[in-house]
Design a protein that fits this description.
376 residues, TIM Barrel, globular, five-stranded parallel sheet, 43% helix, alpha/beta, four-stranded parallel sheet, single chain, RNA-binding, 19% strand
RNA sequence: GGGGGUGCGCCGGAGUUGGAGAGCCGGGCCAGACUGUAAAUCUGGUGACUUAGUCUGAAUAGGUUCGAUUCCUAUCACCCCCA
């Protein structure tokens, strides 16, 4: 249960590391596929393990709490017993839903009252019960309860919210410290830096989180609509403050370009719905650029989807076939595309790691940035 | 063969039963968006052109009328009934 910094690339803040958890080792930098409801949408977990090569995936406290419910999960031995994914899982606390479901919730000092998006019933999420639920889910890494602020966000509100997130962190840590893991595997609690797009708040929050001395520190409240320069600026700023020996997790990011730029600034862990959501909607990422497989131009294209992909589907089926499947809404098309994008994301971070270790990261990154930002 | 009915957009439906349609709804099609997943979702476009506008358009050809998608005649197509 530790993070080890192995190497920092020459001429960059990019790092290679190793996160050792009871259910497996995570090699950083890493991308974590999002599996909100104990499933990675449109994929089988065999795809995610074997073809994608994911070392850790996400789950979501809010969604799993509502369905199937903590009682069901507990009765099945937690999420791992439930969905049979044997590697590490990280659960988001529901802090993102404070942002994304802002019309259905009320924030108080005690916690957040959510009105269920499913049946309208009311549920109070507190730092304490969010830890309890994540104990029952049995995630290997559990996130502190935070408020993910929107963009734009008034300074005074961002400041007030940040302090609330800090107080909630203390309560999370207190609860975490006085409870135990339920299924024989240890759990890590990760705190979250907030502060919107304000330098002084970000710095203050990063310092607050840093002094907790936890193995993984997360950065939240970014990639919520702010300009890309703000994302990069605040990522760099926070990485300057967070302790080097600990892992840094940038929540909810991002595009392939975002990953490379943020690895360059010192980020070790990422998660994002973009590869899977965009796949279902027709956008594929390849080492040659981005394509929209729904476009008419692929209708007769008999070439293979991507001969370089680690996905066997992408090395077998043609662009014309995938265009047809996505176009007609076939589930198989969403699967092919989702596995493809996840394979690309995992390939990208693994390549990044190689180039960090042999000190060629910057040159490789510059080359890749040019390629992946192309629209084919 | 006789009688009745219906014809406008790429398709289906609604509506206009003499008073301003490039014009309603759905689908299709063409694009775009999507960042700790209320997302199998959402947005825009979809006659032509020289595009803040202009022109053409209600099966086809005529006619009546100040004015016709609407009324009349012929033709064509499709549907229903009878033989």
């Amino acid at each position: 249960m530790k993070y080890e910094l192995i190497h920092t690339a020459r001429g960059s803040s990019a790092r290679a590391g190793r996160l050792t958890l009871d259910r497996g080792i995570v090699h950083t930098p890493i991308f974590m596929p999002v599996g909100t409801q104990a499933a990675v949408k449109a994929c089988t977990l065999e795809d995610v393990e074997t073809h994608v090569g994911a070392e850790i995936i996400l789950g979501n406290t809010y969604h799993l709490y509502l369905r199937p419910g903590t009682e069901v999960l507990q009765s099945q031995g937690g999420i791992h017993g439930f969905n049979q994914w044997k590697k590490p899982v990280l659960t988001d606390s529901g802090g993102y839903q404070v942002y994304s479901l802002s019309n259905n919730r009320k924030i108080k000092e005690q916690g957040v009252i959510f009105q269920s998006h499913i049946d309208g019933s009311r549920h109070l999420f507190t730092p304490e019960n969010v830890i309890d639920v994540q104990r029952k889910i049995g995630a290997d890494i559990i996130m502190a309860f935070d408020e993910c602020t929107p963009y734009p966000c008034e300074y005074q509100y961002a400041k007030k919210s940040m302090h609330l997130t800090h107080r909630w962190l203390d309560r999370c840590m207190e609860r975490f410290g006085t409870t135990e893991a339920l299924y024989g595997k240890r759990q890590l609690l990760a705190p979250i830096v907030q502060g919107s797009v304000y330098d002084d708040l970000r710095k203050m929050s990063a310092e607050y989180i840093a002094q907790k001395g936890l193995p993984i520190n997360a950065i939240g409240g970014l990639s919520v609509g702010e300009p890309t320069e703000d994302l990069y600026h605040h990522t760099a700023l926070v990485c300057e403050v967070l302790p080097k020996p600990n892992a840094r997790y940038l929540m909810g990011v991002g595009t392939p370009e975002n990953l490379l730029e943020c690895i360059d600034r010192g980020i070790d862990m990422f998660d994002c719905v973009l590869p899977t959501r965009n796949a279902r909607h027709g956008t594929l990422y390849t080492s040659e650029g981005r394509i929209n497989i729904k476009n008419k131009k692929w209708q007769y294209d008999e070439s293979i989807i991507d001969s370089q992909s680690t996905s066997p589907y992408s090395r077998k089926y043609s662009k014309a076939y995938l265009k047809h499947l996505i176009h007609t809404g076939e589930h198989f098309g969403k699967q092919i595309a989702s596995v493809h994008n996840l394979c690309f994301y995992l390939w990208l971070v693994k390549e990044a790691r190689k180039h960090i270790l042999n000190d060629s990261f910057r040159a490789w990154k510059n080359d890749m940035m040019e390629k992946i930002s192309r629209k084919l």
